[in-house]
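Appendix C: a fully annotated inverse folding record. The material below is reproduced so that readers can follow the format used throughout the book. The structure is listed first as tokens, followed by the designed sequence.
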């Protein structure tokens, strides 16, 4: 009510407004002279912290993850309080929208079996990788991004941005993953959709060289590779749609490198107990070392 009176007082005067609203003018003047409450001071401080957190995470975090970051920083704030303050400062999380698919099914009669059957979990790193690609519209035409994700921690272990959908796109992402996570990958299951890039001779031979086992969705829809599709959707929602328009493949590649680093080392993932993938894997390895020592 006080802000309304402040807004209208020049036109009508304080006393007439208070009389119409059945408010004592002394109450208005007392409120104006009263020092800020502890709650309002705390709200102003918290709003500044929330804005910094939101900006530091590509502006994509909603209420839940902003609240989780505050807890990691030992900042005392309730979830409803964070929701209220984010609404006040006009902040919200990124949302995903349905986009067209880029998969071109391969005409292969001897296709690998579906070893995953829509169960996208793993008990240790390097036991299940998911691979998929998506597109980005730029001023110079479409460019394409391929990802390889470790199901255990949701870490992006390999990626590549190119201006074409040739087999090299997926193969380069795989080579990065093998370089980053090798050499002991025996028993690894590599799961993808039915795209020609993943069933090419060079791709399947490279998997065999790394002692990895190929797996392809049996039904041929997005649910067969849902975890990788989710990463693609978040990539679009958190980076591509929010920071465009994009001019060139080089610009997309640089931004993707920054986003992948954030995804792996700082982004909180619900499936990892609201830890970044790198921190989640480090905790797993530390637990193994303690168990071995005991």
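Designed amino acids, in order:
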């Amino acid at each position: 009510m006080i802000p309304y009176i402040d807004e209208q007082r020049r036109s009508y005067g304080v006393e007439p407004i208070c009389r119409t609203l059945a408010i004592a003018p002394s109450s208005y003047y007392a409120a104006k002279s009263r020092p800020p409450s502890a709650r309002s001071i705390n709200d102003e401080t918290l709003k500044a912290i929330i804005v910094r957190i939101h900006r530091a995470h590509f502006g994509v975090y909603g209420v839940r993850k902003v609240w989780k970051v505050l807890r990691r920083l030992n900042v005392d704030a309730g979830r409803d309080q964070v929701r209220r303050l984010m609404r006040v400062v006009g902040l919200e999380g990124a949302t995903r929208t349905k986009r067209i698919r880029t998969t071109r099914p391969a005409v292969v009669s001897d296709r690998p079996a579906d070893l995953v059957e829509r169960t996208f979990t793993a008990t240790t790193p390097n036991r299940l990788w998911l691979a998929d690609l998506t597109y980005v519209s730029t001023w110079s035409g479409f460019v394409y991004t391929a990802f390889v994700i470790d199901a255990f921690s949701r870490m992006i272990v390999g990626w590549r941005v190119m201006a074409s959908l040739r087999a090299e796109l997926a193969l380069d992402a795989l080579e990065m993953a093998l370089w980053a996570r090798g050499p002991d990958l025996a028993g690894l299951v590599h799961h993808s959709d039915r795209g020609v890039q993943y069933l090419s001779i060079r791709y399947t031979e490279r998997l065999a060289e790394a002692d990895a086992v190929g797996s392809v969705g049996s039904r041929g829809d997005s649910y067969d590779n849902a975890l990788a599709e989710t990463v693609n959707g978040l990539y679009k929602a958190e980076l591509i749609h929010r920071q465009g328009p994009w001019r060139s493949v080089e610009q997309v590649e640089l931004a993707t490198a920054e986003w992948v680093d954030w995804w792996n080392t700082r982004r909180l993932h619900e499936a990892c107990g609201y830890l970044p993938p790198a921190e989640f894997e480090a905790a797993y390895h530390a637990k193994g070392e303690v168990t071995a020592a005991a």
